[in-house]
Specification:
This protein is α/β, with parallel strands linked by helices and 544 residues long. Among the domains are: 175 residues, Rossmann fold, CATH 3.40.50.12780; 69 residues, Roll (Luciferase, domain 3), CATH 2.30.38.10; 96 residues, GMP Synthetase, Chain A, domain 3, CATH 3.30.300.30. It has 16 helices and 25 strands. The strands form four sheets. The protein has a 13-stranded mixed beta sheet with strand order 2-1-11-10-12-13-14-15-16-20-19-18-17. It has a seven-stranded mixed beta sheet with strand order 7-6-5-3-4-8-9, sandwiched between helices. A three-stranded mixed beta sheet has the order 23-24-25, sandwiched between helices. The radius of gyration is 24 Å and the shape is globular. The structure holds adenosine monophosphate. Adenosine monophosphate binds next to strand 14, strand 19 and strand 20.
Length: 544
Amino acid sequence: MQGLMMDMPLLISSLAEHAARFHAGREILAVTADNPEHRYTFSDAVSRSKRLAKALQALGLEQGDRVATIAWNDHRHLEIYYGVSGSGLVCHTINPRLFPEQLVFIINHAEDRFICVDPMFVPLLEAIADKISNVEGIIVMTDADHMPDSKLPNLHCYETLLGEQSDDYEWPMLDENAAAALCYTSGTTGDPKGILYSHRSTILHAYASVAPDAMGLASSDTILPVVPLFHVNAWGIPYSAFMAGAKLVLPGPKMGDGEALYQLMDNEDVTMALGVPTVWLALLQYTEQAGKRLDKLERTLVGGAAVPRSMIEAFHKKHDVELRQGWGMTEMSPLGTVNAPKAGLEGLSEDERLDLATKAGRGIFGVEMRIVNDDGEVQPWDGVAYGALQVRGPWICSDYFKLEGKAGSHTDDGWFETGDVATIDPDGYMAITDRTKDVIKSGGEWVSSIDLENCAMGHPGVAEAAVIGVAHEKWTERPLLIVVPKEEGGIEKDSMLDWFDGKVASWWKPDDVVFVSELPHTATGKVKKIELRKQFADYELPTS
Ligand code: AMP
């Protein structure tokens, strides 16, 4: 017997309608290049999203078409999220820090028809314009007075487009499983892979995120996402904040600036902030030097990379701020676990509490986890046994965009292979012990060791090269290059490092190089990275 409940599709546009009806006057503050303090309300944002939807329709875009963004966190980017997805188009967020070849690959692979771009990223597009000829138009996210002087063909001004439309618009009734947003991971090997979020997965993820033991969002909150809108939808905050009715503070290009973040938190009474460990290091360093305290902040969600114990301690002891660690992936929308305290653990000592807080957290409802050993046997949740972490759930990708199962990312019984190695304790707290991938995570973003090795091997004096991540105070990890020269003493340190200039993104360039006579190899001839990591575990990178 079937239940007798309405079958209403879960749509992103219904979040916009909800926010405009129930939280119309809630404020959104944004920092943009043309205005350091732009303020308006949820109602304004939704009205402008509708005008954008109409403008895109007038440009000839049709349901399912991809509209890309290359932009910081600001109110226009938020409007694009709703105007694009709400009207049945697919919002493809692009990381502006990618190297030009990756940008070209991603834009062409996604078949983006239009790109919305912050004025400061226009030069990025100018540099690759002849390689993305399928893109029909560029919309610069500014007003007519601040339009850049660019020769890019078919350039539009965002504010002019919106100015030509009214907000008299009805969101279309879409299939809840229709694609809503697209985000590429920077591939560890080979090309980046696209994750195609649906309306349904996005709404379910938002429901799960606002729950008390997840992000715990309420209409009384003021949220500062220091996670970029160009990476995994800023951990879904544009959606969950609209669901909860929480005020949004969008830092624009000020993401890495500890002082600016502090000022925003203080001036706007921010109660909840989210980011990767690196941004919080910058903030903590600033508060330490300036003798400031985070009086208004109540809690932070920190994830994307392992969170150091010292950071959890600093937030807790110096600022009385609860730091919740989260773990997730682009493929998971991204939320998988959150480290919230649990009933029954009240008796833990201060030290035990801190130890627990260093773990990635408990699975939130909607995410199932299991760990399996090399033989595919499911391991116990005893906090000791470790294995490859596999997950499944309604906001976890079932495949990559246009790869049709070729990525080998899923098990035969439908679980997604995270590529992480983990333990899970009897209380359900998961801890990442290692990665099966060899990529390096610098400031919350991937650096591909294989790409760097390939580049190094292009140097005429290099016989063999390996790149590993070495712990770094600010960036979590930085790449260390290990080189076997063709001739002993045949390469100067500086010339080896300068070799990467212009060949890889500048922030990928290894921090240092070590010359060795040979690299350890497995039986099949692969470099044994684990051994190298052990050997160089205490390696001190140059501080400059
Ligand atoms: P991304 O898809 O770029 O967000 O990267 C996802 C990966 O980041 C995961 O597979 C983990 O390897 C890593 N990661 C995310 N959160 C954590 C965490 N709390 N601790 C350790 N690693 C993490």
